[in-house]
Amino acid sequence: MSTARTSDFGTGPLSRASALIHTVLTVEALLLLAASPGLAGLLLLGPDPANLPLAALCLLPLGPALSAGLYALHHRGRDVTELHPARTYLRGWRLNAVPALKLWAPLLAWLTVIAFTLTHFPATGLPRWWALLLAVIGAGSLLWGAHALVLTSLFTFRARDTARLAAYFLWHGHATLSAASLLMLTAASTALLTEALPALLAAPLLLSLLHGSRAVIAETRKDFTA
């Protein structure tokens, strides 16, 4: 009976829940640590639209940090006897830092151009419907970025291939709607509560993104990997 109890240890619902909570908290702490240089810089910047390029530079470390978080959450242990979230996070950062930056940096630059244009829109002399069009393009770019982040975190593709796949999966209804819901939730919580909330809930948000991207991950593994 002692052997049976030992083999069952760590496989029950309570153990799995404890493992998940431990992993999420560890990933959250490491993610904040990895992104801390840029997040600290953001705290020093004022809300002036002229600071948008500097804010984009401060957000550069966030891309690899998020990618490593997705990697660690995807490869997490399912019971308390097989937990190495810190080790897995660091492995994900080493593997994905450069690939993530190859997509994250251009995305940030593009979103900065859109945000700068919108904040200075009266000076452009363009019709008002252009502002709506730019906002839609910005939202689409964020959704593309969500798919690209998942793909570059879990698979080894060239940057251009990841970009193409992310664009392809924009039309993958359920996954894109799930990512859109997360973006809307993040935007609403930032506007209504505090700008720090998305950073403090980064790991749970990434876990939700993974859950909503299950079909994307499965299709990529089936159709686009050897």
What do you see in this structure?
The chain has about 230 residues and is an all-alpha fold. About 80% of the residues lie in helices and about 0% in strands. It contains twelve helices and no strands. The chain has helices spanning about 1-10, 15-45, 50-60, 60-75, 85-120, 120-125, 130-155, 160-170, 175-190, 195-200, 200-210, 215-225. Helix 3 (about 50-60) runs antiparallel to helix 5 (about 85-120) and helix 4 (about 60-75) crosses helix 11. The longest helix has about 35 residues, at about 85-120.
The helix count comes to: 12
- Name the average pLDDT: 88
The major sheet is characterized as: none
Helix-and-strand structural type: mainly alpha
Order of helices and strands: HHHHHHHHHHHH
Q: What is the molecular shape?
A: globular
Overall number of strands: 0
- Amino-to-carboxy terminus distance: 45 Å
Portion of residues within helices: over 70%
Beta-strand percentage range: under 5%
Task: Give me some keywords for this one.
226 residues; mainly alpha; 12 helices; 80% helix; globular; disordered N terminus
Compact overview of the structure:
This protein has 226 residues and is mostly helical. The chain contains 12 helices and no strands.
Secondary structure topology:
Layout: H1 2-8, H2 13-44, H3 52-58, H4 62-74, H5 85-119, H6 121-124, H7 128-154, H8 159-169, H9 173-192, H10 197-200, H11 202-212, H12 214-223
Helix pairs in contact: 2-3, 2-4, 2-11, 3-5, 4-5, 4-7, 4-11, 5-7, 7-8, 7-9, 9-11
